[in-house]
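User: Reviewer 2 asked us to show a designed sequence for the structure in our supplementary figure. I'm pasting the structure tokens here. Could you produce the per-position amino acids so we can include them in the response letter?
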């Protein structure tokens, strides 16, 4: 089976985890946590970082930290992971879906402006699939309109927009360190901010409302969202090689671009850049130009030992959303991408010959002559 992704775990990564284990630093309060958080703070140009158990819990804490009131609306792209929807609803907000650009697969300011109302309190800006949202424009818009900007940079480790790193745009920003991310700890995530009051609140919420004064007396029913130190040790080691990870992904992508170039009539490949921001290819996604042919292609590729993933199914089409709000919404581009998009194997495990096999089977599965 050609996996859609395999984490690149090196000897240095294994030694980092072993070293933490040999010191018996295995809890979520060990020095490994502080070390990883400081490294993330330096890399992402943020004053404060709080590591957490995964990217979804990071979103939960970010949304909860801004104290949404009943009826407060949070704009979010429909074409994204379910964690974004869940975090908004759990924090007491109402999700308002904007569409995305059909070519970049990301939200633009114009998409936001179409759905903003006088009840809008925040925007959850998501960078998707290695490309980026219009972060500078959306950030400036939020400042002008006195809106809270939360940035989900889970899929944008290392991305830079006009000199500013993704992960540094939001009042609160979030990361995921899932196994397929450019920086990985297996599972894990982080919340980033420059606001000391917010980070203190987030640290309290992620740690069961413990206080140093009266440890087992609690005023709030908070969560245990702590990251373990062995995960932090792996994450710290992974962060050190992020540049090489990104270079490897871009090399894979250039090969795919070359192999798919004769078939652009049938297949949309990813943009190589948006303005001055180069695609870092968290995944290599393709969109089929024949409607509703994606699932058959996935089945064909699986039969040939090639693993893939479908694109996100739009949030406004999720049963979990409809059961709560029962509203009919149209986000045409998100729906098209959800029907016709998939991503194919990419990463350090992919040789040129394996990439050639993948493209050959894509062409065969689509019956392109």
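Assistant: Here is a per-position design you can include in the supplement:
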């Amino acid at each position: 089976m050609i996996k859609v992704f395999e984490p690149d775990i090196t000897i240095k990564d294994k030694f980092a985890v072993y070293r933490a284990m040999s010191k018996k630093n295995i809890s979520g309060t060990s020095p490994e946590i502080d070390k990883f958080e400081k490294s993330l703070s330096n890399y992402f140009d943020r004053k404060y970082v709080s590591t957490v158990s995964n990217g979804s819990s990071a979103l939960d804490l970010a949304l909860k930290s801004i104290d949404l009131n009943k009826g407060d609306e949070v704009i979010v792209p429909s074409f994204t992971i379910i964690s974004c929807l869940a975090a908004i609803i759990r924090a007491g907000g109402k999700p308002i879906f904007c569409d995305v650009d059909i070519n970049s697969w990301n939200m633009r300011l114009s998409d936001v402006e179409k759905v903003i109302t006088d009840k809008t309190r925040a925007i959850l800006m998501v960078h998707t699939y290695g490309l980026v949202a219009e972060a500078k424009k959306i950030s400036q818009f939020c400042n002008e309109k006195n809106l809270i900007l939360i940035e989900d940079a889970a899929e944008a480790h290392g991305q830079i927009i006009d000199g500013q790193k993704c992960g540094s745009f939001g009042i609160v920003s979030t990361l995921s360190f899932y196994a397929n991310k450019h920086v990985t700890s297996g599972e894990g995530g982080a919340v980033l901010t420059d606001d000391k009051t917010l980070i203190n609140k987030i640290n309290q919420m992620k740690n069961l409302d413990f206080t140093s004064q009266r440890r087992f007396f609690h005023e709030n029913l908070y969560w245990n969202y702590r990251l373990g130190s062995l995960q932090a040790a792996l994450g710290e080691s992974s962060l050190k090689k992020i540049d090489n990870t990104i270079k490897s992904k871009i090399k894979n992508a250039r090969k795919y671009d070359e192999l798919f170039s004769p078939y652009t009539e049938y297949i949309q490949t990813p943009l190589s850049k948006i303005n001055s921001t180069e695609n870092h290819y968290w995944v290599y996604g393709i969109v089929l130009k024949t409607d509703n042919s994606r699932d058959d292609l996935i089945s064909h590729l699986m039969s040939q030992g090639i693993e893939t993933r479908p694109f996100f199914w739009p949030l406004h089409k999720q049963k979990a959303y409809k059961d709560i709000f029962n509203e009919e919404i149209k986000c045409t581009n998100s729906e098209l991408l959800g029907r016709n998009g998939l991503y194919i194997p990419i990463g350090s495990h992919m040789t040129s010959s394996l990439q050639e096999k993948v493209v050959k089977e894509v062409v065969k599965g689509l019956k392109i002559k």
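For the response letter, you might also mention the following. The mean pLDDT is 96. The domain at 242-365 is CATH 3.90.1150.10 (Aspartate Aminotransferase, domain 1).
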